[in-house]
């Protein structure tokens, strides 16, 4: 069985896509692998993202902010996690891949008290984790023979939850 490569994509690759990459890889088996990237990476992983992942027991070794130009391989599935409804410009991936959008507000832009900022990171993580768990619960044998349209529809449905 071929490894399914999933790319979580946003603009800065410092929070949401990093949270998704690490969470996905912690929850999946050897036949799926997540990576993350940004169209304009910040060059650092937000410290609150790392702290949240560590509190959740998710490994953070090797996580770094990277450009989509530096991907180690071609993704089979690309999931954008930017919040286009908030006026954020989502990068468009033009390579051959199944695409879905799972918009999540950027916790790096949260303002307010320490508790409010921390709550924004926790909310982003919880949304992404629920969606990843739904993704991993899909009946994968159904798509092994080329059901890309149905898979894309399922991924879109998950992003609306």
UniProtKB/TrEMBL annotation:
Domain called Phosphotyrosine protein phosphatase I: residue spans: 4-138
GO biological process, one term: response to arsenic-containing substance
Gene3D superfamilies, A to Z: 3.40.50.2300
Span of the signal peptide: none
Entry-linked InterPro entries: Ptyr_pPase, Ptyr_pPase_sf
Keyword Ubl conjugation attached: no
Keywords: Arsenical resistance
Recorded superkingdom: Bacteria
Coiled coil feature spans: none
Protein name as annotated: ArsC family transcriptional regulator
Organism for this UniProt entry: Acidithiobacillus ferrooxidans (Thiobacillus ferrooxidans)
């Amino acid at each position: 069985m071929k490894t399914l490569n999933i790319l979580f994509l946003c603009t800065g690759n410092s929070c949401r896509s990093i949270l998704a990459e690490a969470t996905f890889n912690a929850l999946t088996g050897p036949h799926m692998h997540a990576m993350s990237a940004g169209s304009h990476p910040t060059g650092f992983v937000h410290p609150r993202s790392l702290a949240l992942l560590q509190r959740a027991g998710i490994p953070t070794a090797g996580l770094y902010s990277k450009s989509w130009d530096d991907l180690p391989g071609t993704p089979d599935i690309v999931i954008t996690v930017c919040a286009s409804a908030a006026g954020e410009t989502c990068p468009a991936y033009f390579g051959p891949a199944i695409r879905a959008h799972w918009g999540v507000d950027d916790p790096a832009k949260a303002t307010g008290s320490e508790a409010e900022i921390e709550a924004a990171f926790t909310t982003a993580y919880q949304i992404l984790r629920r969606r990843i768990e739904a993704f991993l619960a899909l009946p994968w044998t159904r798509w092994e023979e080329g059901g890309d349209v149905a898979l894309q529809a399922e991924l879109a449905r998950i992003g609306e939850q």
